[in-house]
Amino acid sequence: MICDANGVPLAVRLTGGNFNDMRELAPMLEALPPIRGKVGRPASLPSEVYADGGYDSRANRALLRARKIRHRIARRNQHNSGLGTKRWVVEQTIALLHWFRRLRIRWEIRDDIHEAFLKLACSLICWRRLRPALR
């Protein structure tokens, strides 16, 4: 899951339970819609990415450098990376997904149905987060 600084989910993908996270960074960046900037400026990718130790690899760091995205990726097996002050937003959004009973424990056999529920839950979280800003 990729979230913005307010906890609004921007992109989400469903993977297997024992799937390595470091292989998912490139597809997640591809799934991310372009972010609009000021009027007259082209849409772009995010300027920074914060990630936990599951995404720590030379390939991911090189990928982010090639796209000119600053990265703060925690090192594997290293504590006190300082990312807890930023990563809590993603953890909070994942906790919000657990409010939806169908996502807490996966009961569906077919992954497309589970992914549909996941995307529906993300859209509801987006709506709830953005609703106060629309008033």
Task: Give the gist of this structure.
With 135 residues, the protein is mainly alpha-helical. It has helices at residues 25-31, 58-66, 84-97, 101-104, 111-134, and strands spanning 2-3, 9-11, 48-51, 70-73.
Considering the chains and any ligands shown, give keywords for the structure:
two-stranded parallel ribbon; mainly alpha; two-stranded antiparallel sheet; 135 residues; 5 helices; Transposase IS4-like domain-containing protein; Transposase_11; 4 strands
If you had to describe this structure to a student in words, what would you say it looks like?
This protein has helices spanning 25-31, 58-66, 84-97, 101-104, 111-134, and strands at residues 2-3, 9-11, 48-51, 70-73. The chain has 135 residues and is mostly helical. The protein has one domain (2-130). The strands form two sheets. Strands 1-2 form a two-stranded antiparallel sheet. A two-stranded parallel ribbon has the order 3-4. A hairpin with a 5-residue loop joins strand 1 (2-3) and strand 2 (9-11). The longest helix has 24 residues, at 111-134. The chain is globular and about 40 Å long. The mean pLDDT is 82.
What amount of the residues lies in strands?
5-15%
Strand order of the largest sheet: 1-2
Q: How many helical elements?
A: 5
What is the ordering of alpha helices and beta strands? EEHEHEHHH
Q: Specify Rg, calculated over alpha carbons.
A: 16 Å
| Count of structural domains | 1
Structural class: mainly alpha
Distance between the termini: 27 Å
Topology, number of strands: 4
Largest sheet: 2 strands, antiparallel
Assembly of the depicted chains: single chain
Unreliable stretches:
none
Helical proportion, percent range: 40-55%
Shape: globular
Overall pLDDT confidence? 82
Pfam families: DDE_Tnp_1 (PF01609)
Protein name: Transposase IS4-like domain-containing protein
